[in-house]
Amino acid sequence: MSMDDKLESCFTKETTAANFRSSTDRTGAGLPPKTSLESPGPAYYNLSRQQRGRCIIFNVQKFSTSENLTDRSGAEVDAFRITNTFRKLGFKCQLVPNPTTRKVRETLQEVSNETKDDADCFVCFFLSHGKLGRIFSSDDDLTFRQLIDPVVRSKSLRNKPKLFFIQACQDYDGTDYKDAPDGWSYSIPSYPDVFVGFSTPPGYYSWRNEEGGSYYISALCSVLDEEASSDNRRDLVSLMGVVNRQLGLGFEC
């Protein structure tokens, strides 16, 4: 099986038509609801264009907000893992270190304004702190909708998979703890052809290690690396189920 076949097998219409809330919810609440597509179409997205697509990585490690947020030591490990994995999958990776809110918006607006129709899909990672459905840039905070909306408006990405992965330690007062739990709360609308993966669901905990990076990103990249070298044909939700199991087994040890 070619690399293109393996990538195409990951991006099913059923996978991204629904908003996948979380990859770590063992209760089943993270699974996409049963939905019917507006019109019949192929079971898989066509990934045969000239470019695989862009993978933008917003990695926020230092903060100058009024929230007194701690530096995210070790987050560069996550950025390295993501870059290594997605470059092997054919993506053009763009690391944006410690972006301000303005820089985030400008970067995503560039995606929205892109006119070339030569990319198969789009991937975005946001690595930071967060609070009550928001994630922090280096100088302010943003809602998840502010991340997704510009990309959804992109004409060149219409009817193509758009993947967002959010790694953000959160609690309700905005304080982050290394190797410690914190909670989630978020609210985002449903979009067509959009997949949103979170490091943890509401009421559960997200973990990060200063030396090894976050457990979620480590598990995610490990699963994608293994899938790329296998002959299995699994969709993205199935792969996130594997990530979920890896995280669960890690916490049970």
From TrEMBL:
Caspase family p20 domain span: 51-173
Region named Disordered: 21-41
One Pfam family this sequence matches: Peptidase_C14
Any one cellular-component term (Gene Ontology): cytoplasm
GO biological process annotation, one example: apoptotic process
GO molecular function: cysteine-type endopeptidase activity
Annotated ranges, domain Caspase family p10: 184-238
Family matches, as PANTHER family: AT03047P-RELATED (PTHR10454:SF232), CASPASE (PTHR10454)
Family statement drawn from the similarity comment of this UniProt entry: Belongs to the peptidase C14A family.
Name of the protein in its database record: Putative caspase
Organism: Ixodes ricinus (Common tick)
